[in-house]
Amino acid sequence: MKESLDKATEELKRIDHLVFVSLKYTRTADVLKSIIQRTINTFSFGFEALLIYAKEQKLITDFPENLALRCNILKEIFPDKKELHEYIDYYLKLRKIMRAEYTQREEYRRHVTMSVVIDGEPIDITMDSAKEDFEMLNGFIKYVNEFIFGKPEEEY
Predict the structure, then answer these.
(1) Which residues contact 9 (CB under 8 A, 6 or more apart)?
(2) pLDDT tens digits, residue range 86-108?
């Protein structure tokens, strides 16, 4: 459980660098795509920590390797945790974004944009949205730490 959270924290540090250094200087859709992939990895490690916690609390006996099934199990185990459900839904949306065809606009400029269409809805990923996602991901890691250990963790 602690190992999964440590992995999530390490991924968060990598995302921090991608958002505030790499993206600032390269401004390409490939960097945005890399940020999304690392965000998915961070969520996965956080969900794994929650599942290990649930297993230790004897809420479940085992959990599958399939990431989508893990999300369903988390929703079943913790039906009253609305914030967790929002994180899970956002994670599943990010996975769809990664698999979708994308186009890029204004590469090498301040308003670099990666555009995808998911379920008929156009989604634009920009430098600003990447920063917002990073802040939300920071909140997720804090949420998982508080959920498992009952106390807030220091800033990352």
Answers:
(1) 141, 156
(2) 999 999 999 999 999 999 999 88
Average pLDDT, the chain: 93
DSSP three-state, residue 66: coil
Look at residue 123 and tell me if it is in a domain. Answer: no
156 within a domain of the structure (yes/no): no
- What is the tally of structural domains in the chain? 1
Q: H or E stretch including 18?
A: none
pLDDT band at 156 (very low <50, low <70, confident <90, very high): very low
Q: Which sign, positive or negative, has the C-alpha torsion 93, 95, 130, 152?
A: positive
Beta strands (DSSP E) in the chain are 102-105, 113-118, 121-126
For residue 122, being part of any structural domain is answered with: no
